[in-house]
Write a structure and sequence with these properties.
Blueprint: H1 2-29, H2 36-40, H3 45-57, H4 61-71, H5 82-97, H6 101-107, E1 121-122, H7 138-146, E2 149-150, E3 159-166, H8 173-182, E4 188-191, H9 193-198, H10 200-208, E5 212-215, H11 223-227, H12 231-249, E6 256-257, E7 263-264, H13 266-274, E8 278-280, H14 297-307, E9 312-317, H15 321-336, E10 340-341
Helix pairs in contact: 14-15
């Protein structure tokens, strides 16, 4: 009999043991987000605590299934906790609104021979004789346009931009100014530093009579070659001329620059733009600079009349005896053809 009671007692204890194991396993697999990882960690204290919480709150199977479905959504729909926002967003704000010095340095465009072309180029264009604008290669036009370079003005209107280069004074500028004043024509004079120093009265007169006195460099070098010597030496060529002009007149020099001899590179144009200047090339010019081989009046007039077009930026040299002697007639004839003369300040 005792053996029989003992056997029954053992059977009862065994049954309770099996029921307890089954109950424990059910708590692990009904936990939201459970799977193989939760199964492996079913004996961890955290899982036991979670199961206890679920049990104490009497979470229904429907609630648990809802949580499972939510947890499988794309993470982009979930809002991070306040703590996560603080940790993730603050560094981003710091980088955007308050960049470090190193970050600022890295973000600045770096000009170097590896990023901008340094090849020296000579300005050239293809003139027309039918009153249509001179043309340049599309790649050249794209290059100069990106760097605030101009060789044409407004081609939709019969407007001309008269410019003179002043490398040195040859005794004709005063007469040229007289003609411009008599015909009420504005012009731009591109001067080098020595010209400002040696012809200060003429420079003041240019300015007083409404003309632009513009930058043609300090020493008349190839700006493409100068750019290869470093930005400081390049900048000196323009900044020194502007300084000498301001010392003389008390005014800032207009921000128009003509590269000496028409020599330039992508790098030199970029450096010029950085200084706030527009580079002014031209769409009309002829061989008027050789004082020992001046063209005849008829030849010069024909060249000018045949090749003038709407929006022309006209380059003449003030050292030319021929230019001085035909200028009044040329201006009157061009006005008779419906052209007007405008300042470079109209360029857009």
């Amino acid at each position: 009999m005792k053996k029989k009671h003992l056997s029954i007692l053992i059977s009862v204890m065994l049954c309770f043991s099996l029921i307890g194991c089954k109950s424990s396993n059910e708590k692990v697999y009904t936990n939201p987000g459970s799977g193989s990882v939760n199964e492996q960690a079913s004996n961890s204290p955290d899982n036991k605590n979670d199961n206890t919480v679920n049990e104490e709150k009497n979470i229904s199977e429907e609630e648990i299934n809802t949580e499972k479905n939510t947890s499988t959504k794309d993470n982009s729909d979930e809002k991070p906790s306040d703590e996560a926002v603080e940790k993730e967003e603050k560094p981003i704000e710091n980088k955007v609104d308050q960049p470090s010095k190193d970050a600022t340095e890295e973000s600045k465009p770096q000009l170097s021979t590896t990023t901008l072309e340094t090849k020296e180029r000579d300005w050239f264009f293809i003139p027309k004789k039918d009153g249509t604008p001179s043309t340049v290669d599309p790649s050249i036009l794209n290059l100069i346009t990106k760097q605030d370079g101009y060789y044409l003005g407004n081609t939709n209107e019969k407007v001309l931009y008269l410019t003179f280069d002043e490398g040195y004074e040859n005794g004709y500028t005063g007469k040229i100014l007289d003609i411009l004043k008599a015909n009420n024509v504005p012009a731009a004079f591109f001067v080098v530093t020595p010209y400002i120093k040696t012809s200060s009265d003429l420079v003041k007169r240019m300015m007083d009579e409404g003309h632009l006195v513009c930058n043609h460099s300090t020493n008349h070098p190839s700006m493409a070659s100068t750019a290869l010597k470093g930005k400081d030496k390049f900048n000196y060529e323009l900044e020194n001329t502007a300084k000498v002009f301001k010392d003389l007149t008390g005014k800032d020099m207009p921000k128009f620059f003509r590269p000496p001899m028409g020599k330039y590179s992508e790098l030199s144009l970029s450096y010029t733009k950085e200084l706030g200047y527009k580079t002014i090339f031209w769409s009309f010019a002829y061989k008027d600079w050789d004082i020992n081989n001046q063209p005849s009046h008829d030849y010069a007039k024909k060249m000018i009349m045949d090749r003038t077009h709407s929006g022309a930026i006209m380059l003449l040299h003030a050292v030319s005896k021929t230019n001085t002697e035909i200028l009044d007639d040329v201006i009157k004839e061009l006005k008779a053809k419906g052209y007007r003369f405008a300042s470079l300040e109209e360029l857009k």
